[in-house]
Amino acid sequence: MPIEVEQVSYVYQPGSPLAWTALDDVSLRIEAGSCWGIIGATGSGKSTLIQHFNGLLKPTRGRVRVDGVDLAQRGVDLRKVRSNVGLVFQYAEQQLFAETVFDDIAFGPRNLGVPAGDLPQRVGEAAHLVGLDPDVLTRSPFSLSGGQARRVALAGVLAMRPHTLVLDEPTAGLDPEGRHTLLQLIHRLHRQAKLTVILVSHSMDDVAEIAEQVLVMDKGRIAMQGTPRELFLRAQELEALGLGVPAAARLTGLLRDRGWNLPPAVTLDEAVDGILAALKGGRGRV
Predict the structure, then answer these.
(1) C-beta of residue 165 within 8 angstroms of C-beta of residue 195
(2) At CA 205, angle to CA 201 and CA 211, rounded to 5?
(3) So where are the chain's domains?
């Protein structure tokens, strides 16, 4: 189920003195089964872009197609589109409202018309995918930790069985352990459940860890695109856009400046492997 964005522009409050262009002639194609990271400074258009992927916003100009279907076409079932392209907002746990975790996870499928008798299976599958114990389902979502609550919000989207999962700053506000756990979960969903994953993040480390392709937004336009390795080794260009590079790239860059013979690295594992190899071969300095 590819997502195609063709020359899309989007203007907030058009025709008013407060009109401003959030997207300006954006084109891209996201293939089914791929994993993308979208980065950019605040106000670069990231969140506006992803809200076009399931029809929450409609382009001022241009087209968005999901699996070949133009979302602006008359008669398109947007409810079906939004079940196939699931969007998890930043701090999604703040949108939990039901008396029990079960009811919160069941909310989306129930609204899609899933029969009541099928809801336990849907909810159970989604809870299992995100690593929630069955006994959590009877608890109030407001009694959970931040990490658990975020997994409940994610399970509510997964219960609709989407083909594409779009996440807006999924690790925001989590401690390091919670961040690591959630990223591992997202990576597993991509690999094992074959989901297309689109991750919007201010964390270069998060994007470097799981993305296969990275899109860099700047002032509503695509500034750069490529693999994490291709982009994160262009530190000066990213800094000019108000962005940084992953900690692993900064560390190995500093060590290389001090005479270490290290290959470029963008993930922690790559940095560790390179440093250990340099020390073992006597090519590093201590």
Answers:
(1) yes
(2) 70
(3) 3-228, 246-286
Beta strand pairing call for 196-200 and 69-70: unpaired
CB 206 within 8 A of CB 171: yes
CA 41 to chain centre: 15
Q: DSSP code of 144?
A: S
Tokens of 91: 């701090």
The pair of three-digit structure tokens given for residue 109, joined into one six-digit string: 């499928």
Q: How many CB atoms lie within 10 A of CB 227?
A: 12
270 with 253: CB under 8 angstroms? no
CATH number of 3-228: 3.40.50.300
Strands (E), 31-143: 35-40, 61-66, 69-70, 85-88
Q: Whole-structure pTM over 0.85, yes or no?
A: yes
The DSSP call for residue 97 is -
Structure confidence by residue, pLDDT tens digits, 163-220:
999 999 998 888 888 888 899 999 999 998 889 999 999 999 999 999 999 999 999 9
Query: Cα–Cα distance between 283 and 274 in angstroms, integer?
Result: 10
> C-alpha angle with apex 194: 188 to 197, nearest 5 degrees?
75
Q: The tokens of 252 are what?
A: 């190995």
